[in-house]
Amino acid sequence: MTTPRTTGWQVYRRLIAYSLGYWHYLALAAVGLVISAATQPFFAWGLKPLLDKAIIQRDSDTILWLPVGILGLFLLRGAAMFLSGYYIGMIGRQVTKTLRNQVFNQLLRMPVSFFENTQSGKLLAYVSYYIDQVANASIRGMTTLVQDSVTILGLLGLMLWYSWQLTLGILVVVPLIALIVVYATRRLRRLSHKVQDSVGDVTQIANEMIRGYKVVRIFNGEPYEERRFGAANEQNIELHMKRMVTELLSTPLVQFMVALALAAIVFMATRESTLEALSPGTFISFIMAMILMLTPIRNLTQLNAQLQTAIAAGEGIFELLDSPTEADTGKQALTQCRGEVLFQNVSFRYPNTDKWVLRDINLRVNAGEKIALVGKSGSGKTTLVNLLPRFYDVQQGEILLDGVKLSELSLYNLRSHIAYVGQDVVLFNDTVRNNIAYGDMRGMSEAHIRAAAEAAFALEFIEKLPQGFDTLIGDNGVMLSGGQRQRLSIARAILSNAPVLILDEATSALDTESERHIQAALDNLLSNRTTFMIAHRLSTIENADRILVMQDGEIIESGKHAELLALNGQYAKLHALQFHDDT
Ligand SMILES: Nc1ncnc2c1ncn2[C@@H]1O[C@H](COP(=O)(O)OP(=O)(O)OP(=O)(O)O)[C@@H](O)[C@H]1O
C-alpha cells in the first residue's frame, strides 16, 4: 500500500485534472487571484511612504498620490476578486456536473452483483454528498493555494528586501508548523473517511424508512427506527465534532508558532542597533507585512482540512469510477430472434460463495414454448432465469439463444430480445405513455402504445385517468392500484415484443375481477413467446407446455401438469399442499 500522502496527492491531481479542461477560465481566475493577492504587499509597502514621507517629511506629492493610490488599489482588488470568484465558482459547478454524470453513468453500468452487495444509501450519498464535497473543497483549495501563497511570497519578498536577517528569524518556526500540519493531515483524512461512511449510514436508514414506511407503521417500528436513526445521527455528529476540533486546534497552534516568531522579531527589531538601520516607516511596514501574513497562513492551514475532505471523498468516487463495469465483450448481434433457448451442463454459484446454486442444468426450450418453474423457496428458480439476460455469468457450461452463446452476443442485443414482468412492478415518475414505452421503445407510435395497452387490458383504466396517457403516475405509480400497475408492466412487455419473456408471477392476491383482467392480459402477452414463468400459484401454470420442478439447484421432474401428477412425485406433493391451502 502507498502511504496516505502519496495517495492523497494522486487523488488530488486527478481531481484537479477535471478543472484543467476549463483552462482558459482557470487562467482568468488565476490572473484575478494573483492581482488580488499582490495588493496585500502593496498595502504593507504603502505604510513606509505614509510614515516617512507624508507624516514625518510632509512631502506634498506623497500626500496627494497616497489617497488616490489607496482607492485605485481597492478598486483593482475588488475587480480582481470578482473575476476570480466568478470563474472559480463556475468551474466548481462544472466539475460537480461532470463528476455527477460520470458517477451516475457508471452506476448504470455496474453489474447486478454490485447493487446486491452495496448499501443503496451509500450509493445515494455518492451522487449527492460526496460529489459536492469534492468539487467545493478541491476548487476552493486551489483558490486558497494560489491566492495565499502569492500573498505570503509577496510579503516575504518585501520583508527580505527590508531586512533579510529579521526575515530569516521567522523561518525558524517553519519545521514546527510543518510537524503540526502533517499530524493534522493524517487525522483529518481518517476522520473525513469516517464522516463519509456515517453519512452513508444516515442516508441508508432514512431511505429504508421512506421506502418501507408501510411496514414500519404496521409493525410499530417507529421506536426502533427512531433509535436506529438517532444512533447513526449521533455517531455522525461525534465524528463531525472530532474533525472540527482537529481543524480548530491546528489553526491556533500554527498561529501561536507564528506569534512566537513575531514576538522574537519585535524583540530583535527594537534592539538599538537594528533600529538605527531601519527608518520608522520601514519598521512599521515590516511589522504590517508580518501581521498581514497571519490570515493567509491561517487559510493555508485550514486549506489542509478542506483538501483532506476532498481527497477522502475523491477516493470513494474514484474507487467507484474505476470498478469494473458489466463485462460486455460479445460482438455478435441476432437481428431476427426466434427465442430458442438451450442450457448445456450449466452450473452456477454466486461470486465469492462456495455453494453451487445451479447444478448441471440441461434444458432445451423451443421457440414459443411456455416453461413453468416450480419448487421450494431457494431451489434456484430466480437464479436460473437471471442467467438469461446475463445478470450473472455461468461458471460452467453454456447457455445459447438461437444457437449463439450468450457470451458472444452484445449485452444490448441480448437484452433487446428479452422482456421481463416481475413481482415488484417498477414504474417511473413519468407519464403513463413513457412508462409503457420505456427505454428502447421511447418514440414508438401512438397506435402501437394504444394497442399494447389494450392487449394488456389497461386501456380501459388509462382512459379514465385525468389526462389519459399523459397522466403523471407519481413516484413508482402510487396513484394506481396493484392490479393496474401490473397491467402497465404487462403492456410494457407486450410493446417490447421480445421473443423471450421472463415472468416472475406475483404472489399477492388480487380480487377476482383484477385477477381475471391480469390473466387475460398475460394470455395475450404469452402468445408466441418463449416464456420462463416462475410460478407461485400452481393453478396458473396448469396450461404450461412444460413444468420443471427444481430442488437444490437441479431439475428433478419435468413434464405436463397431468403427467407430473400421475408421476406422484415432488410436483404432486406441492400440488396437494397448495390445494390444501387454497381450500
Ligand atoms: N445475490 C446472491 N448472492 C448469494 N447467494 C444468493 C444470491 N441470490 C440468491 N442466492 C442463493 O441462491 C439460492 C437460490 O436462490 P433463488 O433466489 O434462485 O431461489 P428461488 O427458487 O427463486 O427462491 P424463491 O422462490 O424464494 O424466490 C438460495 O440459496 C439463495 O440463498
Amount of beta strand: 5-15%
Percent helix among the residues? 55-70%
Q: Can you count the helices?
A: 20
CATH topology of the largest domain: ABC transporter transmembrane region fold
Domains, number: 2
The first-to-last residue Cα distance is 64 Å
Number of extended strands: 10
What is the mean pLDDT?
Answer: 85
Largest sheet: 6 strands, mixed
According to CATH, what is the class of the largest domain? Mainly Alpha
Q: Can you tell me the residue ranges where pLDDT is under 50 for at least 5 consecutive residues?
A: 1-6
By CATH, the architecture of the largest domain is named: Up-down Bundle
What small molecules does the structure contain?
adenosine-5'-triphosphate
- Whole-angstrom Rg: 35 Å
Describe the global form. elongated
Q: SS-based structural class?
A: alpha/beta
Arrangement of strands in the largest sheet: 6-7-8-3-9-10
CATH superfamily of the largest domain: ABC transporter type 1, transmembrane domain
The helix-strand sequence is: HHHHHHHHHHHEEEHEEHEHHHHEHEEEHH
Organism: Thiothrix caldifontis
Domain ABC transmembrane type-1: 27-309
GO molecular function: ABC-type oligopeptide transporter activity; ATP binding; ATP hydrolysis activity; ATPase-coupled lipid transmembrane transporter activity
Subcellular location: Cell membrane
